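Q: Given only this backbone (435 positions), what sequence would you predict?
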């Protein structure tokens, strides 16, 4: 037989060489069994599908995990770029001494920026009469320049009018909804207006749009208006005080270490809320979804590993006579087991690293691929209105990628053990009886 000739070639090098684990002889036979021949075409097809399944499973896992990591990272960076890591609010009375309190809190080691804020809900309308709900944030001009997420992303206009107290900043999506551009006038309507003998009248006031910013997170670009602090205090009947002081820290993960320092620096009763408490439900849902997706997509690799089992079992049945000849020529049962183990493991090994390569290529070009399929289908994939971000992010983590590779290789190697064990237990007498 053609395959038996391999054993004759290996036997010339001596039985000692053939008996070494994973020797050149065993690798030669394993490679010969991986090569397709006409009568074994069906087995080769199964091996091919196993390879493709593992490659696509690994690539899908890497791509999905990278997109979910990128999604979480981008959301955190944008949310924490707008909202402080710690929000300090009064307990025993309003913050009438906010300038001095802000300076004390800003001097705490580990605090980058301390921002006094006045916030309120309003109805914003443009020149055409269109209206939308808005969150007005009153902030000092020198503090806004420290919020790089906003000040470094001015799409049109500038901060000059804002610094002079003569204009407001609005998000790009709000500008599109209201049909506004830099230099136009926006009208704000607040339900907490002037007190009259007839009751409280809504406060209506118009402001010049000094600039338009674009953060890249649709919820913020569509709802937030920045107003000079003194003007916001007048507009919301909060003269001489602020509602909260937001703190941006050097390391958001070390919030707990800063709490006692901030409380000591405040010198009064305060309530502190950190970014984890404000977004706990949201980020917990993201983490759960990420873990569930990993488990579900692992099933793709598991199915491909099962294909390796079926392919090897058929290969063992087809190569029964060859195995018997190898055994009669001196090959041990361990050598037979290692030969078929290497045959199946090679499929898993090559498929895994091909999947890693495919996953890396897709992650690097994820936005171009999204744009191509959007153009091809004529629909908007990853709609910013639904997913908050204007682009599809992807961030690969080395530890996570390594865990995917280890998981795929482990499943592939375990899948080869049973067929290889069956091959090693094949009785040469029974296999050659009808030859």
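A: Predicted residues:
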């Amino acid at each position: 037989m053609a395959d038996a000739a391999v054993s004759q070639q290996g036997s010339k090098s001596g039985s000692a060489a053939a008996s070494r684990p994973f020797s050149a002889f065993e690798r030669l036979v394993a490679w010969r069994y991986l090569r397709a021949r006409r009568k074994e075409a069906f087995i080769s097809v199964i091996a091919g599908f196993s390879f493709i399944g593992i490659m696509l499973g690994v690539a899908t896992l890497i791509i999905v995990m990278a997109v979910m990591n990128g999604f979480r990272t981008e959301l955190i960076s944008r949310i924490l770029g707008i909202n402080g890591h710690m929000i300090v609010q009064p307990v025993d009375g309003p913050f009438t001494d906010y300038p001095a309190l802000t300076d004390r809190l800003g001097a705490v080691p580990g605090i980058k920026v301390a921002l006094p804020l006045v916030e309120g809900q309003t109805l914003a309308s443009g020149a055409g009469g269109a209206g939308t709900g808005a969150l007005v944030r009153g902030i000092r001009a020198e503090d806004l320049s420290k919020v790089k997420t906003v000040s470094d992303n001015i799409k049109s206009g500038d901060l000059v009018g804002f610094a002079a107290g003569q204009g407001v900043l609005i998000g790009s999506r709000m500008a599109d909804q209201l049909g506004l551009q830099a230099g136009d006038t926006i009208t704000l309507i607040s339900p907490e207006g002037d007190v009259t003998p007839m009751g409280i009248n809504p406060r209506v006031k118009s402001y010049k749009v000094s600039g338009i910013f674009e953060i890249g997170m649709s919820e913020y670009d569509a709802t937030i208006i920045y107003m000079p602090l003194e003007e916001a205090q007048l507009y919301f009947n909060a003269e001489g005080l602020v509602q909260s002081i937001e703190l941006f820290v050097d390391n958001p993960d070390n919030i707990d270490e800063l709490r006692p320092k901030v409380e000591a620096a405040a010198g009064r009763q305060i309530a502190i809320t950190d970014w984890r408490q404000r977004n706990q439900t949201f980020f917990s849902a993201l983490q759960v979804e990420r873990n569930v997706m990993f488990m579900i997509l692992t099933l793709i690799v598991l199915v491909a590993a099962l294909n390796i089992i079926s392919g090897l079992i058929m290969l063992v049945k087809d190569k029964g006579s060859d195995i018997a000849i190898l055994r009669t020529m001196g090959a041990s049962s361990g050598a037979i087991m290692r030969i078929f183990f290497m045959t199946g493991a090679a499929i898993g090994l090559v498929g895994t690293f091909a999947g890693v390569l495919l996953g890396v290529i897709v992650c690097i070009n994820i936005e171009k691929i999204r744009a191509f399929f959007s153009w091809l289908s004529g629909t908007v994939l990853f709609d910013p209105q639904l997913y908050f971000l204007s682009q599809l992010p992807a961030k690969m983590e080395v530890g996570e990628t390594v865990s995917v590779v280890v998981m795929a290789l482990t499943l592939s190697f375990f899948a080869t053990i049973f067929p290889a064990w069956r091959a090693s237990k094949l009785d040469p007498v029974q296999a050659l009886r009808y030859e």
